[in-house]
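for the writeup, i need someone to sanity check this before i put it in the appendix. the sequnce is what the collaborator sent (i think, or maybe the updated version? ugh). structure was predicted straight from it, no edits. if anything looks off just tell me and ill rerun, i have time this weekend
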Amino acid sequence: MNKVKAKKHLGQHFLHDQEVCIKISDYITNSFKEEILFEVGPGTGAISKYLLPFFGSKMEVCEIDHESIQYLTKNYPELEHRIINKDFLQIDFKELYPNKSIMVVGNFPYYISSQILFHCLDFREQIPQIIGMFQKELAERICEKAGKKSYGIISVLLQCYYNIDYCFTVNEQSFSPPPKVKSAIIHLKRNDRKELPCDEKFFIQIVKTSFNQRRKMLRNSLKSILKEGFQHPFLNQRPEQLSVEDFISFCLVIEEFDKNK
């Protein structure tokens, strides 16, 4: 087997630009501090082949495409017993790697890339670092700061627990078949926040409800949640004007008001 056909339903775009592959692998090898390197969607091993010499038995990969698994097994026999044939979104890292820290990396399938990050977020105590390829527009949203139009739900929820760096842009021609958009590598590094001082479910509800009507001031978008009589300066602002810390403090004030109401 010399070639794997890219499957549209799996969102496969195989990275073939060796310069980009080396650049990504350098970012990973220079940043790795964990016990397990976990690559998502290795495909034909474009990045894997540069990582294997450094990580050996510390490296495992997750691939759902059987044709890709056959290719990897034939061309990288050292991976044979370290290929997890499972949907990444169904993996329980506490069960798979109890008490171990994991670095998640990969050229993530774009159609589930945000879900991959939210799944990692569920296991954030085990996943201190993520380095991945995303559509450029999504990468920019994830990294964006308050006050910008692309700042939104995913920016706030991920930045609660990770410091995020935009590494570099990757052009369409670096893939086969080429996607219709540019791509980007970003690096997420776990921050010091263990948990939120406010209720996490309530925090997520406030953030999502706020941005789902992002053109409205918070007093209007949140009126179905806020109890009568609640007042705060943030109510006269739109959600993109609030930083992560602003949303946290806002939730704390709401919770305190509700408790005393």
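Residues 8-190 form a domain with the Rossmann fold fold (CATH 3.40.50.150). The chain has two domains: 8-190, 200-260.
thx in advance!!
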